[in-house]
Each structure stands twice: as C-alpha cells, then as structure tokens.
Amino acid sequence: MDHGADFETLREALGHPDLSGEEAARAAADYLRRGQASIREAYAAGASGRTLLRLRTALIDRLLAAAWVRAGLEGPGKVLVAVGGYGRAELAPHSDVDFLVLLPEAEAEALGPAVERLLYLLWDGGLELGHSVRTLAECVSVADGDATARTALLECRHLAGDAEAYAVFEAAMLGEVHSQRVETYVKERLADWRARRERFGRTVYRLEPDLKLGRGGQRDLQTAMWIARVCHHVAGLSDLARHDLIEAVDRDSLASARDFLWRVRCGLHYRAGRRMDLLTFDAQEALALELGYQDETHQLAVEHFMRDTYLAAREVDRIARGIIERSTDALVPEAARPPREPLGPGLLRVGERLEFDREADVEHDPDLCLRAIAVADREALSLASRARDRLRTAARNIPEREWQQPARVALLRERVEAAEGAGTFLELLHETGLLAQLLPELGRVAGLWQHDLYHAYTVDVHSIFAATRYLRLRSGAREDARFGPLSRAVDRPFVLFLAVLLHDVGKGLGGGHSEKGAAMMPAVAARLGLAEREAADLEWLVRAHLLMSHLSQRRDLADPDLIDGFAAEVRNLSRLRMLTLLTHVDASTTGEAAWTEWKASLLWQLHERTAERLGAEEGGPELIDEARARLRAALGPGEAVEAFLASLPERYLLAVEPAAALRHRELLARLDEGEAAALELDADTGGRVETLTIAGRDREGLLADLSGLLAAHRRSILSAQVFSLDDGRVIDVFELEAHAPAPEPGLPGGVGPAVSADPLLPQELCRAVTEPGWGSEEARRRLSRSRLEQRPVPSVPVRIRVDNEVSSAHTVIDVFGPDRLGLLHAITAALHREGISVALARVATEAHRATDAFYVVAAGGRKITAPETIEALRKELAAAVRG
Description:
The chain is of the alpha+beta class. A hairpin with a 5-residue loop joins strand 9 and strand 10. Helix 22 runs antiparallel to helix 24 and helix 24 (493-502) packs parallel to helix 26.
C-alpha cells in the first residue's frame, strides 16, 4: 500500500513558510487519519501481520521525517532515531512510538525550542509519543546504568538527520554492551525472561493469553533476538540460520507463527481502540469471526482460532528457547565446557544435557530416538537444542509404519513399570513430535481447546499432565496419603497409563467423547500388542472415565442402591483402583481451580464404600439395622436415645457418622431447653471445608431461606443435606468453602471464627429459621444492592434433567448452567414455590459452570412422575438459573 500521495501533500504543507502551527497540526492529523484508515482497510482485507506493522511504521516514519524538517532540526550532529519496537519496525495500531532526538553537546541547549516545535506538532497531530532528548554522552551514561534502556537503544534505526552521526551512535551503543561484558547483558536478559515466565505462567495455554508478555509471546522472541544480536551480531530472522542458531524449516515456521500472532495483536488493538495485548474471552469470540473462522459441526470458530493461536505461541516458545540456548552456548570458552561422556551408542552426556554423536543416524533410526528419550529420563537430563531438532526431523522423516510397531511402544511400558523418575519422558516425546507418531490418536487432538473456564489446557497437554501426575504418584515423586499408595497397588500400570493418555481422544468429534474414544481403543490395543484383558480394561476405562466424578460430586453416596449399581459396573477391585486414579489425575490437572480437597474427599468416599462392597461377603447384615446399631453403641443406652433413633429418617442412618450424630443430639437438646434454633460450625483438618449444622423446627421453604442468607453473606455452598425428623424438627447440614482459619474449640455455641467474625450471621441464621421468608427477602435485597460488573466469560447453556431411576426414594434433578452467587437460593426457592422438598443438594462448580444435583420429593413424600409437572418444573428451574 502506497501512502506516497498523502505524504507528498503533507510534506508540501509542512514545508510552506506561511503555515501556522495549528494548521500544521491539522495537516499532520489528517495525514495520520487517512493513513491509519487505509491500514485498517488492509487488515479487514486480510493483510498479514508483518504487512500491517510495516505499513504503520512507514506511515509514522514519513510523518516524523517531515516534522523533523519543519522543526528546523536538519544539520550536522542532529539525528532522529527510532528505538524499541519502533526501531524494530514493529508498530501495531496503538503501539508506543518511541524515538530519540540525538543532539550535539555544544548545541543541545540552544536547540530546545526546535525540539519543542517537533514534539508539539506531533502531539497536536494526535500521536502518542515516548521520546527522549539526549547527547551521545548522555546515551552512553543511561545505557551504562539501565539494562532496559540499554536494550531499547540497541534496537535503533535511523529516521532523519545526520547519517554519519547516527553511525557513531549505533557503534557506541553496541560497544556499550560489550564494555559491560556480553555475559552480564545476557544474564540480565535471561533473569528478566525467567521472572516474566513466573509472573505470566509457565505454559502457553493460558485461558486468556498475553500476546506480548506471556509465554510464546512477542517478548520471548525479542529476548532471543537480543541475545543473538549481542552474541553473534544477528540482524534478523534471515541471519539466524546462517549463524547455525536455527534450522531452516524452523525459520519459516517461526516467521509464520510470528506473523499470525502479529495479526491477532493488531485485531486486539483495533477492537479495544487502544494498546491491548490480553486476549480476553470476549475478544476471542469476536476476533475468531473477524479473522474468518466459522463454526463447524464439532468445533466452534473460537476453538479453531484459539487452537491456531496456541500452536503459534508454542512454536515461538520452542524456537526462541533454542535460539537462546545456542547463542549462550557460544559464550562458554572451550576450556570451560563440560566433557562429552558416552551414554551408549550414539548418545552423549554434556553437562546436564543429552546430545547425539555427530555421526549418529538419528533421522532414520527410530530405536535410537526412543532410546535417547529413555536415557534422558533415567539420567534426569534435558535434551540439547540440536538434539530436540534432530528428533523432530526424525518424527517427520521416518515413515509412520516404522513407529506403529509393538516393539516401539516397549519404551513406554518400560518407563511406566520402572516406577522411577518424574515422568519427564512424556513431555520430551510430546515436544519432539514422537508421541504423536507412537499414539496418533493423541496427535489428532494436539492443540484442541475447549472454550470455557474449566479446561485450562488443550486436550493433548492436559492428557500429558495427567499421565505425568500418575507417574509421579506411582514413583513417589508426588506423595499423597490416599492416592499415592493406591497408585502403587495397581496391578496393570501400563493399561492405566494408556487410559490416562487417551481418555479424551474422542473430543472434537461431537458429543459423547467417552463412547467415541472407547470405540478407538480396540484398534489401539491391537496395534500395541495388548493382552485380551488389558484391551478390555483399556476400553472400559476410557468409556467410564467421567463416571466417578459424576457419582461422587452429584449423587448421594449414602444411597446403598447407588453403591450396589456402581460396584456391579466396576466388577472388581483392580478396575476400581484404576478408575479412581484416572478420575483423580484427570480432574486434578484440568485447571488451576478445578480440583479441591472437597472433591477429592468425595471421590475417596465413593472408592472406599465401593471397595467395601466389592470385598464384602454376600448375605451380610441389613445396612439400616447395622447403621442404627452403630449409632446406639456410640450414643449409649436410654429412652431418650431410643426416641432419637426412632425419629431419624433412613437416609440419616446411612449418611451420618456416629461422631456427627453426637453433635446433632447436642444441638437438638438446646432446642429442648428453649432455643428457637441452634447452630454449630466445624472445619476439616485442612481448613478447606467448613460444616455448618443448623437445628430447628421444620417447615416449607427453610432451605431456600438459609441458602439465600448464606449467599448474602458471600458464603459458597458445596452441598446441603436436609434431615427431617419424625417429631417435626429438622437438621440442615451445609458444607461451605472455607475462607477463614479453622474454628477454635470452646467458643460459645460451637461457633468458629468464620461465623463469629461476622457477628450478625449466627443471629440472622437463627432468625431465618423462625421467620418464614425473611432469609429469602434479605438475600434479594442485599444481592440486588451489591451487583458488580462481571468479566466476560464463555456462555454456558442451561439444561435441566429429571431422573427417576437413580434413586428409589427421590426424584433427582440435575441442573447445568452459568454459576453465580445465590444460585442455590434461586433454585431452592423455585422448588419451594412448586411445593417440592429438597432432601439433598450437591453443588459442584466447574469454574463458571454450575453442575448441581437435587434429591427431591413432592408433597406427601412422593416422586415427581407426571410428564406435565416435570415439564413445568424444567421451565421454572431454567428461569431461576437464568435469573
């Protein structure tokens, strides 16, 4: 695109001696407006990111050159220098325009008015500036004392003025780096690089990635190029291969990835109308459509767009790390380099890295490739940059049939069954492309991303993280009092390892990814040479990998029918151990906040109760009678105890441990002494979950009132159980997410600090028990008064599912929708309006998604079966969720 005509008009206008300052500013503003509008048209027409940045750079170059002449700054020793991103000619639509006015020392003070004319013309013309005015000596002094300034001055480019003075300045800046010692400069840049990775995350797969400062962003590549420049005088990407800092194929891949990310960053700037580098959820959806992506049958446009974004960032991250490693290796004197120690045919240990012998035929020898990975894992070595590149070449060059041999997968089985190390071989296989050759099903989902807050990583990376966590549990590198010993009790660890790696390979093919993934497993098992029982277990694990999360988080674990049904599905303890571990490592690596101690405890309860059932002999005592006997033994003899036991519903007998029943009796005793309501707060040993127990007179709508009041006090409810006694009293038990230290024993009424720190909450909870509707009214009043602007998040569809099969005594209602404060109150209030009582509420939150379950009965304790009633209930609950 040529802005020559506009520039000639601008230059003529600014060069006219009778043009006032105000008229000159208007001419500059008009030039900028026209030029920027045409660049935006180029963006809309599909121009590449590199083209867009160069067009804006050229536009600003011309404006500054014309303004330089009008300000009267031409002449010996005076130079206009672009620095920083502007010096690199990388100006996004709202990037800072950083430049230096370099003046001869003898004239610096006298030229002050001319410099002011330059700056005011640009400011009044509408340009955002980052500028400095210095002499050469001042530049050297600044570079000497400030590493950031030293880097900005290294990225200089001549704009206007004395070319010979500029050459002296450029040499002085590079000389200043060398006078400070290149090693010192490189250490400074590497320290910044590591600190930034700590701050912005160690993965490119951020839910809302920062395209400039995040991993795989613009600053990673800049850091690599800065280091390459001072170490090897590299001027640009084309120089990298010449200095053996990058492979030719990677140079093209890097240029493509950089160009894609630049174009996305330009779109962000245009959309925000300002400098913006954070790719937020709302921006992701808008840019996906703007950049030409379309929804497909099994993938949203935004998911396809983000997959490309992550893959581009991954390339930048990988290649930039290689450039940095090769550049810094050259700084080490020959005498100080670590020795090259043989590690078997073709392999060498060089310090803390593994390298290949130069004569090794890596690119055509799959056995050598896999042996290198195994040795690196066993010896705790990283792969040298050149070794990684050679393995990536091998992954591309060696025919697929060579990888698809059972003998090749022996490496995986050997490393898993060795139960040693931290499982780093998986990441090495993935990074080099070898894992996708060994397990092409996993390669199909590389970079596949789901547009929600719950899944923090792409499908392939999540699967590798999950499998690595399993290996760390098995080896003891990651200790866990419950799941660690269980992992070492698994009798077929390789089958479980494969199930963890492949459990999500059915994603991206439409709904029901568990079934679709399971359907792929017979072919996988045959290709890998698995035994018949191993193949059957692998298929079952992939099909059932969501089952335990569903049951533990959304179903009543005190229901003996549920445990019986699950035990029948699992069939044996071997499968139960594997499925429990698969569930744990899957859920705990989904995202930063996806797994909590509360969810872990529920999973463990399901495992323990099912293991007990699978190990029990047939014909044991009745569960209800056994539970009642346990409580009687704990509470002691007496008529009062018998009356208490007689008043308890069967669910209570199966769900409540004797220690909790003792505390419940004490609360009920306080009611007998005249208190209208009694409450207690207790915490688990980790302080992560608090149990709030409230005793009072039973009535309709009590759960809605209590949950509403808790929401008004910003308490997050994990579950709620309602035990209605035959004598008209009720015990409501809430599991709350803790946000305060564990309660101290001995406080009045058993109320811990989390409640007593808010002195109004205990008395308000008691009031909510005794005054029907008051808690709900308070919730509406306070929540409506305190609404805050919400960050944009991916949309969540509302679904209501009614199930009369899962429980013999209750209708189970599953509610799916966007989570928000007070949602439990909204749902229970809607159920109350329909005359429906809640016995158990299980509140499971997946980031911004609510996946709640309610065990309910209609009036008279009946299930809800009439189709018209169920349909009306669905509509009422959907409206409450959207509320």
